[in-house]
Write a structure and sequence with these properties.
Layout: E1 2-3, H1 5-18, H2 23-38, H3 49-57, E2 68-72, E3 76-80, H4 86-104, E4 106-114, H5 120-129, E5 133-140, E6 161-168, E7 171-179, H6 185-194, E8 203-204, E9 210-211, H7 214-218, E10 224-225, H8 231-247, E11 262-269, H9 279-292, H10 308-320, E12 322-323, H11 326-338, H12 343-350
Parallel strand pairs: 3-4
Antiparallel strand pairs: 1-12, 2-3, 4-11, 5-6, 5-11, 6-7, 8-9, 8-10
């Protein structure tokens, strides 16, 4: 079934508002989740809605939390998200980081104790919209410990996204947004809901054997996710764990955690204040165009740069709609009905009002 973005966003906002979020927070969460679906990252889209509401009911995340400032200088900010919804507290942290960056030319924001941060590329996009370069490293303290180290079969690392955004004057930004794992855990949720297998090299079963069945990952007993590229993804994930966990004060992955607590280290750079004058914009634009000009490896191929695919997906899905599988839609509607969201709002999302 396909859904238009705006009515779907309005339904998701209504769900979070009924669950206790102030309207501004409900809107921020809904916009973030639907945007993830629009750009093709369904694993971080509206499929997360029932999960977030379950965590809220279990006291693992809290509505309407404001950042608590732990330490601050003109260019450094250490903040505690107090286990608020990640989409809400990270938006606050990004806004503060960009303010400092535009004043000082450079800022570092260490965020600890956030609920699920969502699609990290979204935060890099906010920075490039403000014409700033940004780098982001993310981890969890334990509940998200899903990935094995290279050469191991036991979970020891989080998925650990690493994201870099670079603005391109007059053109779409370059947004490099990856997980250190072979796949984000949300992609396994999507595959399980759709009843399909996952590609080779994504997951191991509980005995450390390769499998294509996402149910083997969830168990019981539980399997694990592999790092991408063997030791390269493992090394990147380990460094992200140390930066987002130890350096922020949020903590690195450990056993025994029952809530998803995330840390994020963000670095923001204002290119206009780094001393390269106007050369940055010209050189970025020249080089990106040069990379795209490479001959494709197939007659119908096209060379893309990071962020191009997301932009293409967004244009297509805005025009044709966001496709959700029946299991995901049923989970969302059940959550909406449990919260007594107006039935007309649910019908409007399907275009049947």
């Amino acid at each position: 079934m396909k859904f238009q973005a705006k009515p779907l966003e309005q339904l998701i906002s209504a769900i979070f508002a009924r669950a206790g979020s102030e309207q501004d927070e409900a809107d921020v969460i809904a916009q973030h989740l639907v945007k993830a679906n629009l750009v093709g990252h369904d694993s971080h889209g509206v499929i997360r809605t029932p999960i977030y509401i379950e965590w809220l009911r279990d006291g693992k995340v809290f509505a309407n939390r404001k950042l608590k400032v732990i330490f601050e200088t003109p260019s450094i900010l250490v903040v505690d998200g107090q286990m608020g919804y990640g989409q809400s507290v990270v938006k606050q942290a990004v806004d503060l980081g960009l303010d400092k960056c535009q004043e000082q030319g450079l800022s570092v924001v260490a965020l600890r104790n956030s609920g699920h941060i969502g699609r990290v590329g979204h935060w890099a996009e906010l920075a490039t919209d403000a014409e700033c370069v940004s780098l982001h490293f993310v981890n969890t303290t334990g509940l998200g410990m899903l990935m094995v180290p290279a050469g191991g079969i036991d979970r020891r690392l989080s998925i650990n996204p690493v994201t870099i955004g670079v603005p391109v004057a007059g053109k779409p930004a370059v947004i490099f947004d990856i997980a250190a794992a072979a796949a984000a855990e949300g992609k396994l949720k999507v595959a399980r809901n759709r009843g399909v297998s996952v590609p080779d090299g994504w997951i191991l079963d509980a005995d450390g054997q390769p499998t294509n069945d996402p149910n083997e990952f969830y168990g019981p007993p539980r399997g694990a996710i592999l790092p991408f590229g063997g030791h390269k993804g493992y090394g990147l994930g380990l460094m992200a764990e140390l930066l987002a966990g130890a350096l922020t004060g949020s903590g690195c992955s450990q056993e025994g955690k029952t809530g998803l607590e995330q840390g994020m280290l963000s670095i923001y750079i204002d290119p206009t204040k780094i001393g390269t004058e106007g050369g940055f914009d010209d050189e970025v634009s020249r080089y990106v165009d040069f990379v795209r000009s490479s001959r494709a490896d197939s007659p119908d191929g096209k060379v893309l740069v990071p962020g191009d695919l997301e932009a293409q997906n967004q244009a297509e899905r805005l025009a044709t709609g966001i496709e959700l599988d029946d299991a995901t839609w049923n989970q969302i509607t059940t959550t909406a009905q449990d919260l007594e969201v107006d039935a007309a709002r649910i019908d409007a999302a399907t275009g049947t009002d």
